[in-house]
């Protein structure tokens, strides 16, 4: 049932593993130029950490710190000991680089294999990786995990739906890795091709890389005819494999033998109790080459209270609800794109894509939401479209407390990205002051 015994370790056993891992990580960090300065200024060493809670003795590490240390200011081993590096997508500001030793890559692959086993994939299954490879960690991270688990792994890469379909059919694929926006796009493609997803025989989809709502997950399951499992990872913590749902689909187990996770108040940094949403802070516990202490992920989530029905003892993270840095402020109201997605995906008339546009009008910030609607809805009589428009505006206003402009467009008219979906375009940055 379980990939390894640590998945059901007692809470006391996990605390002991984390304490040992924290001491080892602090000792390793002393070889890093950045942490040698920081820990030296604090006057702390490995001997000062006697429980996981002692992590609070340390200050946070931020993305800005990593940018200042770019490209190699955080390395704890000689350059010749590293065999891989990945670079963050750099959607805001300068990129960050993460280096891996051979041990780091092996440990990462083992964690991903554990994740895949938790959803139900097994040795001998055929697994198609429909994610981009290269500097993006999702491709190679999942690939190595699938091979470690013993799956026949098809490195299909991103896009090219006709080729994806041929591979799915020819090799009788059991599971896939796919980002949510492309999953919906691929479901539409299957419909256009007259393909019944049930005829493909696939059973599992691992989805991640983009925040998405529960309704989006259920829609993916509906259009693809399989079970879709949420995942969490970030380049700074290796990539995929940090936390993953099990078959219960009741939150993502964060692997506490490999990471020490905290939820803190984004403003004060104070720890928050289970059940309360805050910013996720992560510490690596087993990485040799480039460990990180108390890294602020900027992702907003919570620890789900209670035990999971699957029997695993590692705490569960709720799905990511937004980020501390993607909040939109319009007319004094704080809006997260995920709030808008939640409303849209609850409406059956909506197709697969939407775009939030920010612009200025009469020196005031405004928000417009372009929404693709299903073909049969778009072709309906004008009163039908007008009624849908009115309902959509009202529901969005009730959710975000601002009345957005809404534009209904034909399905497929918003360009689909092959990588992470672009959900927000800020045209205010292009307009003169």
Automatic annotation (TrEMBL):
* Keywords assigned by UniProt, alphabetized: Ligase, Nucleotide-binding
Q: Which SUPFAM superfamilies match?
A: Acetyl-CoA synthetase-like (SSF56801)
Task: Using the record's annotation, list all stretches that form the AMP-dependent synthetase/ligase domain.
Answer: 79-282
Pathway the protein acts in: Aromatic compound metabolism; phenylacetate degradation
Q: Which InterPro entries match?
A: AMP-bd_C_sf, AMP-dep_Lig_C, AMP-dep_synth/lig_dom, ANL_N_sf, PA_CoA_ligase
Gene3D superfamilies per the UniProt record, alphabetical: 3.30.300.30, N-terminal domain of ligase-like (3.40.50.12780)
Mark the transmembrane ranges. none
Q: Which organism is it from?
A: Rhodocyclus gracilis
Checking Pfam families in the record gives: AMP-binding, AMP-binding_C_2
Enzyme class per UniProt: ligase
Q: Tell me the classification of the organism that encodes this protein.
A: Bacteria, Pseudomonadati, Pseudomonadota, Betaproteobacteria, Rhodocyclales
Protein task? Catalyzes the activation of phenylacetic acid (PA) to phenylacetyl-CoA (PA-CoA).
Stretches assigned to the AMP-dependent ligase C-terminal domain: 332-428
Entry EC no(s): 6.2.1.30
Gene Ontology molecular function: any one? ligase activity
What family, per the record? Answer: Belongs to the phenylacetyl-CoA ligase family.
Q: Which reaction does it catalyse?
A: 2-phenylacetate + ATP + CoA = phenylacetyl-CoA + AMP + diphosphate
From the Swiss-Prot or TrEMBL record, give the protein name.
Answer: Phenylacetate-coenzyme A ligase
């Amino acid at each position: 049932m379980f990939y390894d015994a640590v998945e059901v370790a007692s809470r006391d056993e996990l605390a002991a593993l984390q304490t040992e891992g924290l001491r080892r990580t602090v000792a390793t960090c002393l070889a890093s130029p950045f942490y040698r300065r920081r820990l030296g200024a604090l006057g702390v060493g490995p001997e000062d950490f006697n429980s996981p809670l002692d992590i609070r003795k340390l200050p946070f590490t931020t993305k800005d710190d990593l940018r200042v240390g770019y490209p190699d200011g955080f390395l704890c081993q000689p350059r010749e000991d590293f065999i891989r590096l990945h670079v963050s997508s750099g959607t805001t500001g300068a990129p960050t680089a993460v280096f891996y030793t051979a041990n780091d890559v092996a440990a990462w692959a083992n964690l991903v294999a554990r994740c895949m086993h938790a959803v139900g994939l097994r040795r001998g299954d055929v697994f198609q990786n429909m994610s981009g490879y290269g500097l993006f960690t999702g491709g190679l991270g999942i690939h190595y995990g699938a091979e470690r688990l013993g799956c026949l792994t098809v490195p299909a890469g991103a896009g090219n739906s006709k080729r994806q379909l041929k591979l799915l059919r020819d090799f009788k694929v059991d599971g896939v890795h796919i980002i949510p926006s492309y999953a919906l796009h691929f479901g539409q493609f299957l419909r256009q091709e007259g393909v019944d997803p049930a005829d493909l025989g696939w059973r599992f989809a691992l989805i991640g890389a983009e925040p998405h709502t529960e309704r989006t997950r259920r829609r993916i399951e509906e259009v693809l005819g399989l079970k879709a499992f949420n995942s969490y990872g970030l380049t700074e913590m290796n990539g995929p494999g940090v936390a993953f749902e099990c078959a219960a689909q009741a939150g993502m187990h964060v692997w506490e033998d490999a990471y020490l996770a905290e939820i803190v108040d984004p403003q004060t940094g104070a720890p928050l109790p289970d059940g309360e949403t805050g910013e996720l802070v992560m510490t690596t516990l087993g990485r040799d080459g480039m460990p990180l202490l108390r890294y602020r992920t900027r992702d907003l989530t919570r620890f789900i209270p209670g035990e999971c029905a699957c029997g695993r003892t590692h705490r569960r993270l709720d799905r990511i609800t937004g980020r501390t840095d993607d909040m939109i402020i319009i007319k004094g109201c704080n809006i997260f794109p995920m709030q808008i997605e939640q409303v849209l995906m609850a409406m059956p008339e909506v197709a697969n894509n939407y775009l939030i546009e920010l612009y200025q009008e009469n020196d005031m910030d405004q928000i417009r939401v372009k929404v693709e609607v299903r073909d049969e809805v778009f072709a309906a009589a004008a009163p039908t479209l007008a009624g849908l428009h009115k309902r959509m505006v009202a529901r969005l206003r009730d959710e975000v407390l601002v009345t957005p402009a809404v534009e209904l467009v034909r399905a497929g008219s918003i360009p689909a990205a092959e990588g992470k979906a672009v959900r927000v375009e800020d045209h205010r940055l292009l307009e003169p002051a």
